[in-house]
Amino acid sequence: RMLEHDLRHAVARGQMHLVYQPQTDVGSGEVIGFEALLRWKHPERGFVSPAVFIPIAEESDAILRIGEWVLREACREAATWPRPLSIAVNVSAVQIHSPHFVGLVHEVLLRTGLAPHRLEVEVTETALISDPNRALLTLRQLKALGLRIAMDDFGTGYSSLSNLRSFPFDKIKIDQSFVRSVDSNEQTAAIVRSVLGLGRGLGLPVLAEGVETEAELGFLAAEQCHAAQGYLMGRPSPIDRFAQHTHGTA
Ligand code: G
Ligand code: G
Ligand code: MN
Ligand code: NA
């Protein structure tokens, strides 16, 4: 496929960049960190969505080179911020199962000087199920480096509840499909309340993704959700847009 070929050279040709989306504390409204999201500007096709090219990259192993670049770039950027905000990086199944991944993360932390506790690795449940024993070992080794693991897209994957017990997650990210209209749909509200109760019972903070309206945020505040992310608080954007948060200036 054309895209597959072009992807192999995209990093070296400088076509990839990261945008950053703020994550806020629901109680205080303050920005507590950012999620790094990958963007590819193809020379002829323009912007190609990661929802399109990440699956292609995962088939061809190009994901390893791209994922390494994302990790380096996000950690390098976050290490320049005067304020010690967290930085969340999405990691694919292929990376988690690469024998070099833990060593790579260790090396990137050392080289960038980023404090390990500021790094959060986001993994989906689907990334863990092909070889759960291997995945568990990798997650434990990552945690031994001092970073945190978030379960991404919670509720959309396979067997969410047993995964929460089997893997050492530090945070639950409720998928945006459950956040959309949570203020007006009683079924959705019941599901989100139960995930928040689950988080409380397990001692895990919960972040709600895809918050677009004040009404959704109000529901989350009333239900004591810890953190939120979504267009309401900020769209994924170049990091300069958020200098008042990263640098603490007005
Ligand atoms: O930001 P956006 O809605 O375009 O992202 C679409 C999908 O691509 C999401 O599932 C998101 O997690 C994924 N994605 C974005 N950036 C990265 C990345 O750097 N690595 C991986 N593996 N997935 C990413
Ligand atoms: O799978 P993951 O949760 O990593 O993907 C996050 C995706 O959700 C990104 O593509 C990001 O652009 C998108 N996103 C973030 N906030 C919102 C939002 O408020 N509404 C919608 N529709 N998408 C969002
Ligand atoms: Mn994510
Ligand atoms: Na998600």
Write the layout of secondary structure elements.
Blueprint: H1 2-10, E1 16-25, E2 31-42, E3 46-48, H2 50-60, H3 62-79, E4 86-90, H4 93-96, H5 101-112, E5 119-124, H6 132-144, E6 148-154, H7 160-166, E7 171-174, H8 176-179, H9 186-202, E8 206-208, H10 214-222, E9 227-229, H11 243-246
Parallel strand pairs: 2-4, 4-5, 5-6, 6-7, 7-8, 8-9
Antiparallel strand pairs: 1-2, 1-9, 2-3
Helix pairs in contact: 1-2, 2-3, 3-5
The protein binds guanosine-5'-monophosphate (2 copies), manganese (II) ion and sodium ion (NA).
One guanosine-5'-monophosphate (G) is lined by residues 21, 37, 90, 152-153, 176, 209-212, 230-231, 236.
Can you tag this structure with a few keywords?
250 residues; alpha/beta; TIM Barrel; 8-stranded mixed barrel; 9 strands; 43% helix; globular; binds guanosine-5'-monophosphate; binds manganese (II) ion; binds sodium ion
